[in-house]
Amino acid sequence: GFLAVALTLFFMFKNLPNLNQAFLYGLSSFMAVLPDAIEIPYYFLSWKNKWMKKYVYFEHKYQANGGIFWGIVTQLLTILACLKVLLF
Question: Which among 21, 31, 16, 7 is positioned nearest to 82, based on CA atoms?
Answer without folding.
Answer: 7
